[in-house]
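Friendly challenge for the regulars: who can give me the structure tokens for this chain first? No prize, just bragging rights.
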Amino acid sequence: MLFQGFWISLALYLLVGTVIWMNWFEEEIFGMLEDEEDSRVQEVVHQVQILVESYGGKAVYLLIAGVGILSWPLYVYTTLIGWVRRLQERG
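First reply, four minutes later:
Bragging rights claimed.
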């Protein structure tokens, strides 16, 4: 019974991560990659292009999506902190 809770928690974690990835995080990540003004972003785009040439586009997308799905708590935390700070600056 203990392991059932573990598997349910893991499934919910991945489900929430997938929903966040599909609705918000994916657009933000690929939007940043299209912004070529920042030199750090240009370096990341170059590295992604090398990976795409080596492993194919689908594999690289799945890798980026996997990282996004697993790191959703960090994304939610930074988004909420930014939102709270903007509210504090107004008030």
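The CA atoms of residues 10 and 60 lie 24 Å apart. The first helix runs from residue 2 to 34. Your move, everyone else.
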